[in-house]
# Entry
Amino acid sequence: MINRFRHIRLSLGRILLLIALLMAPTINSKSFADNDLTENDIKALFILNFIKYVNWPPDVDKSAIRIGIAGDSPVLESLLKVIRNRRENKNIKVEKMDPNAGTIYQIIFVTAEESGKIMRWNRKYAGKGVLIISDGCKSNCAAAINLLNIDNKMRFEINTFAAQACGIKISTRLMELATSVE
# Structure
């Protein structure tokens, strides 16, 4: 009886966490149209919600989160739009990355076109407390989080080894929602 109650409580907790994370009733092509949300808007919501479930090292400044977009992606515009419309994101800055600049980021979103260079980003930011998120990386993804569109539903994978190499820890609550955890 106690185990059954615990199972129900854990299931309910996972469902509530998933709802809070996604902030949309369902994430499929029909809901994109119904809610005026595009796939890029959903990706932006995922990226912003991941912030709540990542533990950065103590020396990383979390008072102003800086998100860098590596490559060209409409996710940049979606992130800017979502940040403008949400009060709790006032201290979040989003910009297209200049690989030669010395700008410090807490999150790097690596677009699909840049996914072949993901190891370069990992080496550059190893141990510096940077969450690297990739967009649909196909094989052997070295990003801490990889966003995927599976059957018109946005999903994500977590690579704990990549997260550790970057110097961050991802909450077990977020790991429970991932399609896979390495």
